[in-house]
Amino acid sequence: MSSKLLRGTFILTLGTIVSKVLGLFYVIPFYAIVKAEGTALYSYSYIPYTIFISIATAGVPLAVSKFVAKYNAMGEYAVGRKLFKSGLVVMLATGIISFLIMYFTAPILAAMSISPDDKGLINTADVTTVMRAVSFALIVVPFMSLIRGFFQGHQSMGPSAVSQVVEQIVRIVFVLGGAFLIYKVLDGSLVSAVSVATFAAFIGALGSLAVLGWYWFKRKPHLDELLLEDKGTMDVSLKEIYKEILLYAAPFVFVGIANPLFQFIDQITFSKAMESIGLASQASEAFSILNFESHKLVIIPVSLATAFSLTLVPSITKSFVENDRKSMNRQLNQTFQVMMYLTVPAAIGIAILAEPVFTVFYEHKELGTEVLRTYSPVAILFALFSVTAAIMQGINEQRFTILSLLTGLLVKLTLNIPLIKMFETQGAVLSTALGYTAAILINFYVIRKYAQYPFRFVARRCALILLLTGIMAVFTIAVNAGLSQFLSPASKIQSLIIITISAIAGAGVYLYLGLRLKLIDMLFGDKVGKIKSKLHLRI
Description:
With 539 residues, the chain is mainly alpha-helical. The protein has helices spanning 3-25, 27-57, 60-73, 77-113, 124-134, 141-153, 158-185, 190-228, 238-256, 258-276, 283-298, 303-321, 325-352, 354-361, 366-375, 378-394, 398-423, 425-450, 456-483, 492-516, 519-524, 526-534. The chain has a domain at 1-248. Helix 2 (27-57) crosses helix 8 and helix 14 (354-361) crosses helix 15 (366-375).
């Protein structure tokens, strides 16, 4: 992996991780303000919003980065700039249309989500109000995403990383401040508090847009210099540009809405399935645990995979266009290994410490612990799908991305209600895992066949990673069990102590084994050696 790509990967990885971590920890005070009913209401609105935003952006960041990277590699810098100028207008129009559609279809979506027999306080009017509040963000986000994609296409990951973090900070401040002010200070309704919390997505997007605007004016002179080096041998019309962008973007849309679509299947089937087994009164609370509380924790280990997906596409496209298979295989080897090395132990660690983790972030709840323990390992599947789908964009096999996702969704839709009836909330987790597994297997087959990529080397390394994770898991379980003899996982403070000591012990064993076997050196290169020498480590 080139130094520029590696640097870009780490910058975007860092930005994504910081953004995800901020997005995780704000749920502690937010849950304390609105409780399970508020988070359920929040979740009912945010899942459709995520689907709308993915469609509205039309996979723009990745599609534009791929397009710009391709023509930059050819020395045709003016083609990318032409796309950028016209794309701003198109994205603004797309955002406004998406906003109007979501705003006016909110009552229909709300009716699909709530069971008539749900005895909770949430009703379709409440869900409609909250959905409409979050829909305003659709106006800004597509416009903003085009600018991010343009920078990424120039292998400039800083603007995207910084804007993500700023967007998250602004959003969280507005979420917590607004919800607390309305619900606790002004004694307003729960619906009003959650509506302000979802409207924060619009405010956060404005903050991100301001950052990107600053980067644009700062870097415009350099981008204009590239135009002076333009070969000018290609005159690509706007019709041809958007035809190519749509071919790139369609699979990105499906990849971007993969997780929200799986969640949306739960949203429209979960309450009805729970009602059929006599648990309608528990449906909203269980849905909140599944698709908000647990999901927020599970998605953290996927951050690395998401960051790699964003940076992988331009580099894979470049290697593919130049027919440099050796370089492409080397990039894929490193990406798969680093992703698995970091994602697998994190997911398994959360599963082992599910009880104290759920207590610290929310409250001590048996169902929350059970769902989180089952759901955590599914993060590995989320990560694998994200990375394999990105690879398929890079090798121009987008059609199979759509096929694999549709197959996964069909598995999820077919099995969801029967499994919920059999295993209640856990059944929804199991159907998600089976759906993602089906999609990933198709992706593996396509990559092996069309990229001629041999999985043998990565498979051996992944087996080693699983072995190290198993050793770490045994050690972490032992430490957790020992601490639980005199510390209670029902207490937030004591749970935090259990998590801290157990996580440090488990991570220490895992890191030591990785260093001892030279696996970390092979994955992260010379920088590890420099760090070890500075710390005087002889492992």
